[in-house]
UniProtKB/TrEMBL annotation:
Lineage: Archaea, Methanobacteriati, Methanobacteriota, Stenosarchaea group, Halobacteria
Occurrences of domain DNA mismatch repair protein S5 (ranges): 228-353
Biased composition (Polar residues): 211-224
Protein name: DNA mismatch repair protein MutL
Protein's job: This protein is involved in the repair of mismatches in DNA. It is required for dam-dependent methyl-directed DNA mismatch repair. May act as a 'molecular matchmaker', a protein that promotes the formation of a stable complex between two or more DNA-binding proteins in an ATP-dependent manner without itself being part of a final effector complex.
Ranges where the record places region Disordered: 200-224
Similarity comment: family membership: Belongs to the DNA mismatch repair MutL/HexB family.
Species, as recorded: Halolamina salifodinae
Full protein stretch here: 1 to 365 of 766
Amino acid sequence: MSEEPSITALDDATVQRIAAGEVVERPASVVKELVENSIDADASRVSVAVERGGKDGIRVRDDGVGMSAEELDLAVRDHHTSKIGDIADLEAGVGTLGFRGEALAAVGAVSRLTMRSKPRDGEMGHELTVEGGDIGDSSPAGCPAGTVVEVDDLFYNVPARRKFLKTDATEFDHVNTVVTQYALANPGVAVSLEHDGREVFATDGNGGRSPPSSRTQSGGTGNLRSTVLSVYGREVAESMVDVEWSADDVSAETPIRSVRGLVSHPETTRAGREYLSTFVNDRYVTASTLREAVLDAYGGQLAPDRYPFAVLFVELDPATVDVNVHPRKLEVRFDDESGVKEAVSEAVKEALLAEGLIRTSAPRG
Ligand code: ADP
Ligand code: MG
């Protein structure tokens, strides 16, 4: 007696949708991917507009290099990328934010995606739509140089996911956090955010376009301060103090090369941790080690359950940090967690002490 085997192959559409779920969790994850693409495309201006927290619509417009009709069609296919060619490129180190070639395919699988693009040196623009993974034909379309990506009805074909989304306000908070991080990390790019037709913030991009490693060094923190002013407002910007710490200035051995940025006065705080922004080698990351290091520096000066504002750029040997813990979550791990924590805490403490905002250095140990 033979029975049907209980194991069967999943069909392509199912496989595609499951894979998409790994990349796209909520509107903010779509926004993250699209903004990264715009920055990778050398944009000097990135405008983000969302409707109802991004659940109904997301539009990201840039003035980057753009795509031809053929490139549009390839861009939305899974594992298609212009950013790396093979594993050797990956091992040599990637200078772009993306490289997996999965994002647009994933977004297209779980929404109605429309892209319009014109290469900078191209004569004509094109438009392409993808609906629930079905890729349409591209057609000529009038548009300025650069790219516009519109994502409507996210998860319309994955009801379980759609149901799991939070209120418009909560989803928008996540979108806002993401766009803010990219605005802070790229003071040379004019980044704007709009929600339901209302402007939330806009940076002017006057921070100057400089190579990533010198981005925060070249203009000191002046540019960063003006970006902070745009995204967090005057009260916060004026309460920020400069953090300027370099391993060259200390005798002890440290895994960190430098820590630069801004941290707020101990009384300028919020109830949430989302205003503690940390960047490792110019990439936005979430790392509890870095967060704790900042909080430690304030000693007992913070009110209970209050968190300061911080925008901190940490530079260290890329070989000593693992940024690939999870493609979506932006978490990192350091080879020397305690060394990193101590150095970052020292850098912030020094800055606060210099301004007389904390009294004494907490005992080291
Ligand atoms: P990845 O960013 O990992 O390469 P994506 O799926 O996000 O994968 O994008 C696929 C490709 O589409 C990119 O490698 C790039 O060539 C192109 N692309 C995507 N967005 C843009 C954009 N805003 N401007 C120009 N090219 C883009
Ligand atoms: Mg990408």
